[in-house]
From TrEMBL:
Protein name, entry field: Glycosyl hydrolase
Recorded superkingdom: Bacteria
UniProt keyword list: Glycosidase, Hydrolase, Signal
The keyword Hydrolase is assigned to this record: yes
Length: 487
């Protein structure tokens, strides 16, 4: 009887212990502002402040803000998507310009992007599968007409692109999420017999083109470059004067379902993350619905990629479309795959609104569920190239190849306010502004540090309260400034 009673007591104690353990997992410790110091970093128009440490502040009590107080409300207990990273594309153009720099400037450049301490800590990277507009010419990895890919070789990339990619990954201590995108299949595989000006992939070459991705991924991985994922086609609804290829939503769905997905899986590359669309926010919901509503295709899809060029029509950026797609398909990831300031003009290197375009987009995209954000070229020359069709653009850093100097634009610093401070696997948390002049987003890193970004869109200095629960700190932000608060 006593043995039975002891066993029952022991069982009860184990159950209570197990329940308490389970409860502690369900209810993580709440964030506390006690003894926290807020370190403020600022970049501001018409000043010398560029990712500059401008304040160390503390919290005090503020139980109930009033309507006359401007507030940023942060709720670390409300968590959303997991952060993947921020980075840019290493194109042929970027690699060719990099090769022209002195060794000292190359080192400065690598640290500026890929060092978390000395630079802004990029952790995401994209590159082109054979040529794109930001290449010095059109090229493929096979001889024209070789549908069996017997001549496949990435030797072209060994001169410029592969060395830069390897150096960037090394500077980032190997912590790089690397994905790849094609701009066009080889000319003989298309109905317009050209890599340029749109055209479509001919059905008889669907399998050959799917095999091409496998060859590329395997070739890069043999070089010691782990390929995390791929997009199916860059801008599949744009007929461009450069490398381009058109897929309707149904065509992209069927190519993925019947060819690319099974081919990658059969080749042992089923773990590669496949991103669909890779074009502007305007049509992304139609593309997502067509592909993801088909269960056989959806199983291959990691996420939906998007660009920011939908304002070509004269309208505003369609940030809300990102949020709506996230609501429709909450189990799929959203990835910003490309954006840059178009129409290069050397007189506008330091145009502040170019940087503000980045800040506004990044805050809105993250608040709408985006997990990662990828800029376009990491480096271009003093002409906004090289580019074999004259489509010259801005990048966050330019190199003047005549003087050998690097030119840092506002875009570099705006991106840095996010990438330098938010760590991989951070969680986005609740962050809301009480006034439309301010934009904000917040993340909590795995070490428990909160990162809050605040952007002032107005022409006036604003004093606001950073409110976390019933704690607050009064902070000032200059006109047209962006701040990162670390606490």
């Amino acid at each position: 009887m006593k043995t039975k009673k002891t066993a029952t007591t022991l069982l009860l104690m184990i159950s209570i212990f197990g329940f308490s353990q389970q409860k502690s997992k369900i209810q993580p410790k709440s964030f506390s502002t006690k003894d926290k110091i807020i370190t403020v970093y600022t970049s501001a128009d018409s000043t010398n402040l560029r990712l500059s440490k401008t304040d160390n502040l503390t919290f005090s009590d503020l139980k109930q803000p009033v309507e006359t107080q401007v507030c940023i409300f942060v709720n670390p207990d409300k968590t959303y998507q997991t952060f993947l990273g921020i980075g840019g594309a290493i194109t042929d153009a970027s690699a060719e310009v990099f090769a022209k720099l002195s060794q000292d400037k190359q080192q400065e450049f690598l640290e500026a992007y890929y060092s978390k301490d000395k630079g802004i800590g990029y952790s995401l990277m994209r590159t082109n599968i054979h040529s794109c507009d930001f290449s010095s010419d059109s090229y493929t990895y096979i001889e024209e007409g070789d549908k069996d890919l017997k001549t496949f070789s990435i030797d072209h990339d060994r001169k410029y692109k592969l060395p830069l990619i390897k150096k960037a990954i090394a500077m980032a201590a190997g912590k790089m999420t690397f994905f790849v995108s094609p701009w066009s299949p080889p000319a003989f595989m298309k109905d317009n017999a050209s890599m340029l000006k749109g055209g479509k992939l001919l059905p008889e070459f669907y399998q050959s083109w799917a095999n091409y991705y496998v060859k590329f991924i395997n070739s890069y991985q043999k070089e010691g470059i782990p390929v995390w994922g791929l997009t199916i086609q860059n801008e599949p609804m744009a007929v461009q004067k450069w490398e381009s290829c058109i897929y309707t939503a149904e065509e992209e769905r069927d190519f993925l379902k019947n060819y690319l997905g099974p081919t990658l899986k059969k080749a042992g590359l089923g773990d590669k993350k496949i991103t669909i669309w890779d074009h502007n926010r305007d049509l992304m919901s139609q593309r997502a619905s067509t592909i993801l509503d088909d269960p056989e295709t959806s199983k291959y899809v990691w996420g939906i990629g998007f660009h920011w060029y939908e304002n070509w029509s004269g309208g505003e950026m369609m940030f809300e479309n990102v949020g709506k797609v996230h609501e429709m398909y909450p189990n799929k990831n959203l990835l910003f795959t490309e954006g840059c300031v178009e129409k290069f003009d050397a007189l506008k290197y330091q145009l502040w609104k170019n940087g503000e375009r980045y800040g506004k987009s990044m805050i809105n995209d993250f608040n709408n569920g985006t997990v990662g954000w990828t800029d376009w070229n990491i480096l271009l020359d003093e002409n906004g190239g090289p580019n074999h069709v004259g489509n010259f653009c801005f990048s966050p850093i330019h190199a003047d190849t005549k003087t050998g100097e690097l030119i840092y634009t506002p875009s570099y610093y705006f991106i840095g306010h996010f990438s330098k401070f938010i760590d991989k696997n951070a969680k986005r948390i609740g962050s809301i502004a009480s006034r439309s002049q301010l934009l904000t987003t917040s993340f909590i890193n795995n070490d428990g540090k909160v990162i809050t970004i605040v952007m002032n869109q107005s022409n006036k200095k604003i004093t606001y309260n950073l409110c976390v629960g019933t704690s607050s700190s009064e902070i000032s932000i200059l006109p047209h400034a962006i701040q990162t608060l670390v606490y």
